[in-house]
User: Fold this.
Amino acid sequence: MRAKDLNDAVLHQLFTGEDTNVFAALDGASVPDLLDKLYRLLPEFECLFRGELEPDVAEVAPYLVQLEPNSEFTRWIVTHGWGQHWGIFAVSPADFRALRSHFRTLLTVYDASGRPMLFRYYDPRVLRIYLPTCNAGELSTIFGPITGYIVEDADPWTLLRFSPDSGSLSKEQFDLDPEAGQNEPSASLQNAQRQLS
Assistant:
């Protein structure tokens, strides 16, 4: 029963907005049999790497998927992937094509010597650490058309929601444990998010 409570709480947080789309950027290297599930359940999806990929690269590549509230694929991702660092969730009024384009622009970063590197922002362990370090310009770049990122915390019973707020970052932390006041941001975090700016 506790696992069902967690799944329901995550789904509730993902699909709170009426006029927004929900997307998942999923890491093929972390999600077992992702391609099989995508081709069997057929949500709208596309690889974030461009061009024809060798099969072994396609298996570990990142994928953008548009999620629907009651789809089998959405339930599978939340039920099996939450807490397993399978990917991140993004909420946006933009359509699939705009999100695909935006996420592709974030894949490559450059080190101090100008050498290109893959930025694994679609790993929630990376994104939840990276976002609080961003300045206003970096936040604008990483958010683009996205109104909120939703990621698991190290404790899967804690959901983090990041959103842009006038050039600064707003961070809300939701305790998903039904015994602890499910889906309510913690009071200490509400104060902390005001101090982030």
